[in-house]
């Protein structure tokens, strides 16, 4: 598993949440791309290209480097501060209304137990970190973006937190913690997160896609569906 027994501070469990379609009723990167088109900062063709790439994501065959190269073009050459201001508006306008109330309740349930909450996402950090801040979650693993002198280059850096990359990044994060966790919970909707869910002690398939739903049923994992009526924060 992901844990060793030589850390100093003890907390009950680590609760690991995917973001898109798990905590929110949408894909945050897709919403962001549409937001950029709406603002006139990206061409309509970006949405057409992204839709094609997301079809591969649903099948578990997406090349994430290709996706990031295409979708980071609109912010290439922009100052971090300017994009941060746009992201604040985006989170308030597009993300907050898409939050699952059951997701908020589950995060709160873990916090009341004294558990440590971590969001890990295959979306880039300039979106995930502000969303996590809104959720009062301090720890985030997301796709890291390269900047030079405060300007986005349009490139990523390090291991992409996608599929097996989530486990690699998670192990690196754990190695830097002073906390010994008794065990772990993991929550995701996507078959792409099977490596992450296999790595935790207590996997939960949340709003699962068909492939993950089948895997969860075969392996007797708990399935949670937060997509019911009146469960989105408005």
UniProtKB/TrEMBL annotation:
Database matches in Pfam families: HAD
Molecular function via GO: hydrolase activity; metal ion binding
Keyword Transport annotated: no
Keyword Transit peptide attached: no
Record SUPFAM superfamilies: HAD-like
Domain of life: Bacteria
InterPro entries documented for this protein: HAD-like_SerB (IPR050582), HAD-like_sf (IPR036412), HAD_hydro_SerB1 (IPR006385), HAD_sf (IPR023214)
Keyword tags: Hydrolase, Magnesium, Metal-binding
Gene3D superfamilies per record: HAD superfamily/HAD-like (3.40.50.1000), SG protein - dephosphorylation function (1.20.1440.100)
PANTHER family assigned to the protein according to its UniProt record, in alphabetical order: PHOSPHATASE RV3661-RELATED, PHOSPHOSERINE PHOSPHATASE
Protein name: HAD-IB family hydrolase
Annotated organism of origin: Photobacterium frigidiphilum
Lineage of producing organism: Bacteria, Pseudomonadati, Pseudomonadota, Gammaproteobacteria, Vibrionales
């Amino acid at each position: 598993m992901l844990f060793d027994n030589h850390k100093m501070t003890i907390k009950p469990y680590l609760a690991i949440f995917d973001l898109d379609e798990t905590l929110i009723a949408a894909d945050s990167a897709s919403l962001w791309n549409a937001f950029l088109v709406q603002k006139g900062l990206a061409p309509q063709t970006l949405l057409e290209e992204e839709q094609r790439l997301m079809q591969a994501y649903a099948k578990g065959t997406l090349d994430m480097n290709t996706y990031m190269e295409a979708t980071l073009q609109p912010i290439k050459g922009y100052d971090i501060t300017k994009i941060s201001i746009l992201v604040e508006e985006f989170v308030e306008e597009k993300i907050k209304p898409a939050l699952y109330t059951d997701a908020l309740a589950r995060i709160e349930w873990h916090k009341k137990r004294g558990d440590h909450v971590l969001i890990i996402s295959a979306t880039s950090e300039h979106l995930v970190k502000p969303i996590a801040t809104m959720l009062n979650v301090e720890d985030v693993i997301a796709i890291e973006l390269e900047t030079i002198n405060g300007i986005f280059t349009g490139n990523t850096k390090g291991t992409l937190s996608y599929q097996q990359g989530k486990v690699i990044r998670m192990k690196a994060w754990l190695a830097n913690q002073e906390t010994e966790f008794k065990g772990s919970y993991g929550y995701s909707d996507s078959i792409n997160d099977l490596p992450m869910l296999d790595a935790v002690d207590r996997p939960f398939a949340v709003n699962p896609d068909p492939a993950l739903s089948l895997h969860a049923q075969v392996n007797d994992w708990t399935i949670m569906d937060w997509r019911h009526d009146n469960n989105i924060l408005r």
